[in-house]
Amino acid sequence: MRVIFVFILFLQLNFLYAETIIDDVGRKIDIKLPISSIVSLSPAHTEMIYFLGQESKLKAVSVNCSFPKEAALKEKAGTFLNPDIEKILKIKPDIVISGGGIQKKAIKNLENLNIPVIVLYPRDIENIADNMYLLSFITGCKDCPIKIKNFSTKVKPQINKNIKIYMEIWGSPVMAVGGTSFINDLIKRAGAQNILNDTKQEYPKISDEFVIKNKPDIIILLYEPEKNYKEKFRFKNTPAGKKNQIFVLSKEEQDVFLRTGPRIVQAFNKLTEIINRINK
User: Fold this and answer.
1) Is residue 2 part of a domain?
2) Structural domain span for residue 226
3) 144 and 184, same structural domain?
4) Element housing 11 (H / E)
5) Pair 116, 27 in one domain
6) Rounded to 5 degrees, what are φ and ψ at 61?
C-alpha cells in the first residue's frame, strides 16, 4: 500500500494538463501546464519572469534581454529581430514568448516545427499586469498573484495637472509616442496629456509644425540626441523649449519607459517627478 501511495503522489506532483491560451493578438495556443522550460525573445517579459521568481524555467533569452544582469548569463537564442531558430529547436522549450508582430516570420517558422509561441504585446498598464498573471498561471506559480497585485497598486492615476507632454523616441526620422502606445497610458496616469493622444499609431512620424502647433509644456527624449538638440526648430519654438523643460533620459531610463515590464513603475515615478517640478 505504501508503494501505491508514493506512486499516486508522484503522479499528482508531475501531472500535466492541456490548456488553450489566448495571447495578446488573439491567437489560440495549446500547451501542457505547468510549463517547465521557456525561451523568451522579449526583454520585457524576461524581466517579468525574473520579477515573478520563475527564472529557473528560462532556458534561453534573446541577446537584447539585458535586465536583470543575471539574464546575461542565460543561453542566447539570437536577437529580438532575428531569433536563432536552430538553437530554439535544439532546446525544445515548452513555450517561446514573443514580443510582437515584428517577429511574425520567426513565429511561423517555430510553429511549423511544433514549438508553441505566445505573443505578448501589452498596450497599457492593465495589459502588463495581465501578462504577468498569464505567466504566473502557465508556470504554476501560486504566490505570484500577490506580487502582481502589489505592482499594480504602485501605478495609481494622478490628478490631471493640465500639462501637455511630447515624448520623442527617435530624431531622424522624427518619431514620437502615439495614442495607442502603452506609454500614452502612462502619461495619462501621471496626470498629463500626450499631444499625440488622438493619433491611431503607436509611434508615428511627426512634423516640426505639428509639435510647435500643439505647444507641449514638457519634451522628453527617449534616445541620445546630438549636442545642439535644443536648437532644433521643433524644440526651441515650444513652451517646453523656451522654458528649458526638455529632458533627455539616460539609457537605463529609456529602457524602463520602452519596455512593457515591471520596471514601468520606475518610468511612472520618473514621469511624475518631471511633471511635478516644471514651471507651467
Assistant:
1) no
2) 164-277
3) no
4) helix 2-13
5) yes
6) -135, 170
Question: What b/e readout covers 139-148, taking b as 16+ CB neighbours within 10 angstroms?
Answer: bebeebeebb
Return the CA Rg of the chain: 22
* Phi–psi pair at 53, nearest 5 degrees: 75, 25
What is the residue-wise DSSP string for 202-264?
Answer: SS-B--HHHHHHT--SEEEESS---TTGGGSHHHHTSHHHHTT-EEEPPHHHHHHHHS-STTH
How many Cβ atoms are within 10 Å of 108's Cβ, its own excluded?
Answer: 11
> Which whole-number Å values give the CA distances from 96 to 103, 119, 140, in the listed order?
12, 9, 16
Taking residue 154's Cβ as centre, other Cβ atoms within 10 Å add up to 13
Shared-domain flag, residues 172 and 139 = no
CATH number at residue 64: 3.40.50.1980
Q: Residue type at 50? A: Y
Per-residue burial over 40-65, b if 16 or more Cβ lie within 10 Å, else e, is bbbbbbbbbbbbbebbebbbbbbbbb
47 in any annotated domain:
yes
Number of domains comprising the chain: 2
pLDDT digits (tens, 9 = 90+) for 163-219: 999 999 999 999 999 999 999 999 999 999 999 999 999 999 999 999 999 999 999
Looking at the fold, whether 27 and 146 belong to one and the same domain comes out as yes
Cell numbers for 20, please give them: 488553450
Q: Are residues 129 and 224 in the same domain?
A: no
The pTM (predicted TM-score) of the whole model is 0.88
Count CB atoms within 10 A of the CB of residue 37: 14
Which one, of 69, 118, 99, 132, lies nearest residue 262 by Cα? 132
